[in-house]
Amino acid sequence: MRLCVSRSCVSRAPCRGALPRGCCPSRKPHPPRAPMCSLLASCDAWTLLSTGLSLCNVINFVSIANQITLIAGKKGISPFAETLSQIKRDFPTTRARWQFFPSVFWLTGSSDAALLLVPLVGAATALASAAACLIGVAGVLPCARVACWVILRSLDLPVGLLYPWDALLLEAAAFHTLLPSTPGVPPHPWVAASFRWLLARVMLGFG
Fold this sequence. Notes:
By secondary structure, the protein is mostly helical.
């Protein structure tokens, strides 16, 4: 029995005549990774963060779509049409309305169909943002991220996003628009610091 020594490995198995002298039998090749595993392995932390935020927005928009007509619909708890009418009386100029109450509902109206359509469009946009981030379609990401934030900001008027997790999503969506659209490119140091500060506030605020 003699040891088989090479630069790459040391084995106590006897050398076989079929192999070159000083070489060990090679290990079995690893099975190929599944496509999704390979895709996730190639993603960096910021790409995964961007994808996760987009998926959180999808869940949030779908949740709002399921209850918005019950809250702000024509027969809801607090009809949104009355809210818009009151704002128009208090702020006669269009500039003042957009300045203090920015919302796409000034363009779409306050009908039940519009109330349902806006969060559904937001969910579709967030889903497209997540898919584009994973696939690497950089041209879609800036517009999709900005659209998600604008729609989420607009839903604050009829629904009232007052809870801490709502404020967290609003702030994270705003920072999300500043992330690079090219996968693998790190964000600006100030953007990275903003995300880390937001995470620290969440950890400290929620215990």
